[in-house]
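hi! just following up on the protien thing from before. the input was this:
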Amino acid sequence: MKPLSGPIYHFSDCSLSDEFFNLHKQCAELPLEINHPYDRHKAVWDGKSIPEDYDERSMVALDESINWITDVVEQMSFGENTVAVEIKHAYHDHNLRLTFSGEMNDDGQCDGCMRPISTPFYSCEQCKFFLHKECAELSRKKRHPFHKHALMLKKSNTSVYPLCSSCRRLYHGFSYKCDDKGCAFECDIRCILLSDTLEHPSHEHSLFLVHNFSTSCNACRRENYYLSAIAYRCTKRCDFILDLHCATLPLTAWYKYDRHLLTLACSDDSDPSQHYCDLCEHERDPNDWFYYCAECDNTLHSKCALGDLPFLKIGSNLYEYFFHNHPHPFTIVKNIWDCPPCKFCGEVCNEQALQCKKSECNFSVHWDCRYQLRL
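and the predicted 3d structure came back as:
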């Protein structure tokens, strides 16, 4: 149903319709049978039958003239390219200026995807608000290959904690939510921007996006418990699969004691005596993914490198329903140099932790220790 362009076939006397019938040349030449790597049978289309759950709204072309979320305030020309250097974004009160280079704050987060900020990005001169250029240019509406309704771009309130329907992680920032009443599907933008195929360092072959997979992930070895789960699967029938939780792990991570970015490693053939984490100083399972710097010989658990809640806003509060045994909210903090001990286990709260800032409490706790607190 795309607009006609290029070579087409045109039928002026067609029994299928009272109107003219047109086909792109490439559509007219599609085979009647295909082989798919995940189906043992040939898929045959009869040109008539439509699935019962088909919703024709999912095929309606979006009007791009009203689909943008930003207005250009100022633009500049660089050679043949024109770049918006100042914009007004629908989800922020002030104008945002584009930055091409410069040093980043260690705790700076993009308010769209919640990943560490990196150039190029837009920022507010009055607030600590950042958006990667890619996140600022997201469209108002999107389609998802495994959801039949249109999805609308939304900005979450930091007092709530949505759960992504694809990767099953808590998140803040931007997401796409179903525009249909009564449908709870929502997808954070890290997942919505994934392509149909993925080249990942953990596997030699291309990976293909699949829905409702029934096997465990090769990286974390977790089983799929959700009907809406999406994953990447090998196109070469070698049974390799990555759930979106692992497929969306960043390929690099920042570590305060290393001048280089750490790189995601998917296997470890080093000496067993080296299988420990330089941050928590606990042993590492050689079968688990980790982050490392080859030059400085630093290795970290993936959870130590990223934190338990990598896509929640630093400085936001978690309220009582996350803590059965504590009456006050906790603030998500990132401890860089001053790392207090955990109130429950006594070990230092390195990097990401939770802090109760009430004067009568004033303590920190690990995410995994939060339910062990006693009044």
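The first helix runs from residue 25 to 28.
Residues 86 and 97 are 5 Å apart (CA to CA).
cheers
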